[in-house]
Specification:
With about 190 residues, the chain is mostly helical. About 75% of the residues lie in helices and about 0% in strands. The chain is built from ten helices and no strands. α7 packs across α8. The protein is elongated and about 55 Å long. The model has no long low-confidence stretch (mean pLDDT about 85).
């Protein structure tokens, strides 16, 4: 890709991320093109379909979440790393309203362009969970699929007007429920 095309592509991507964060999965492609100050044809040259644009946005965000898991795994205590990543995952889902359905469909569809990113991020979360379980600070009765489902569910819950005011509290409740009493006792004595 030529330098000028790469610059336009990056600009469109940044504007699309902003619009989708505001409007969710129902974001208008016309609005993205308008805010990027390009024609709709230019947007379609870089992202030939609505799905291609959303897949690129989500793949980038999921890859960031996977990288974050790797950073947390090497630097933080297992329980804190797990909870920090879990909260980041919820924030990601909330920042892209309507993404839960796309992720849920992609995780079981190897043909989906998002399948690899979804399974990779689920595995990254599972690694954090296994690490915390191995040290006895996380519940042993959940797995990576449960963690991914809880994250997606809490993100979706925050998008619902009736539950949005309680979303933060509920995320705290579930995040603490991931951990064992042993972890909670050790934090009190620290």
């Amino acid at each position: 890709m030529r330098a000028d095309a790469r610059k336009i592509h990056s600009h469109l991507f940044a504007v699309a991320r902003e619009v989708v964060a505001e409007q969710g999965a129902a974001a208008s492609l016309r609005e993205i093109a308008r805010r990027a100050d390009v024609g709709l044809g230019t947007l379609y040259r870089h992202f030939p379909t609505r799905e291609a644009l959303f897949e690129a946005l989500l793949r980038s965000a999921l890859d960031d979440l996977t990288r974050k898991a790797g950073e947390l795994e090497s630097t933080d205590a297992p329980g804190e790393a797990l909870v920090a990543w879990f909260r980041d995952g919820i924030a990601f889902v909330r920042s892209y309203r309507g993404v839960v359905e796309l992720m849920a469909g992609a995780i079981d569809d190897p043909q989906s362009a998002l399948h690899a990113s979804c399974t990779t991020v689920r595995s990254a979360g599972a690694n954090l969970l296994h690490r915390a379980q191995a040290t006895g600070v996380a519940r042993a009765d959940i797995d990576g699929a449960d963690l991914f489902a809880l994250m997606a569910s809490l993100g979706w819950l925050g998008d619902q007007a009736a539950f949005a005011p309680r979303a933060g509290h509920l995320a705290d409740v579930i995040a603490s429920a991931l951990l064992t009493d042993r972890h909670l006792r050790s934090r009190k004595h620290a």
